[in-house]
Amino acid sequence: MTETLPGRADLAAGGIRSGTDDGTVDGRIRSGTDDGVAGGAIRSRADAGTVGGGIASGADAGTVGGGIASGVDAEGYRRALAVHAAGVVVVTAQTEGVPVGLTATSFSSVSLDPPLVSFYVDRSSTTWPWLSRADRFAVNILTADQADLAARFARKGVDRFAAPTRWRPGTLGTPLLSDVSANLVCTPHSTIEIGDHFLVVGLVNETRLGPATRPLLYHRGRFGRFLPHP
User: Where is the Flavin reductase like domain (predicted)?
Assistant: First the structure.
């Protein structure tokens, strides 16, 4: 079960699912456009396999899908997605000496051997053109007390890495957020364009565990915390 935290965070009506960076809502991830940090007005699609030296050029980059029409009602689809509770992470990287990051609830484990994880990024994300050029990235798994941090990395017009954000440079400068449940440092494995998102898969090279604590969850447009059954 989940317990709703105070405040709505004004992020999504229907659930953060995988980051766009414009601070608006459409039932998927929304991870704020910090024009000064995350790439400003860059709206490039960063098509899989075309950006050199980074995530978008990972092995097996490709395209999936096409003109498949499902006939499902879009609003009903968003409402159905909203009932799914999801964990919350912040994906961080450094590109050309500048730290970038976005909030995501689409994070998932993919494989134990090799250790692979994934997340989705909206094609309209203004952070993606910068993130896609990084040669490594970190997945920072947030705790129940870090709803404000999740909101910060999903908000436009702010320097996400300025105070009160607490972070330190990790392996080869990859930004690692402090006081999180875990940091997973990854190198790009593959990027696939699927529907209106990019599926990003990373090979985990390093893990850092924080103190045992409850995770931050996202459900029906609100942050909350997990309450275990007795």
Answer: 81-225
12: three-class secondary structure by DSSP? coil
- What is the rounded average pLDDT of the residues 202-225? 94
Contact 39, 100 (CB under 8 A): yes
Cis peptide bond prior to 164, omega within 30° of 0: yes
Cα(27)–Cα(71) distance, integer angstroms = 18
Domain that holds residue 101: 2-226
**pLDDT-derived band at 212, boundaries 50, 70, 90:** confident
Angstrom distance (rounded) from CA 222 to CA 181: 20
Partners of residue 202 on adjacent β-strands: 117, 188
Nearest to 96 by CA among 134, 125, 58: 134
Alpha-carbon dihedral of residues 186, 216, 119, 100, nearest 10 degrees?
Answer: -60
Total domains in the fold of the chain = 1
CATH of the domain at 34: 2.30.110.10
Do residues 22 and 33 touch, judged by C-beta distance below 8 A? yes
Give the chain's radius of gyration (CA, Å). 16
Q: Where are the alpha helices (DSSP H) in 39-146?
A: 74-82, 128-131
Fill in the DSSP letter of residue 172.
Answer: G
State the amino acid at position 157 in one-letter form.
G
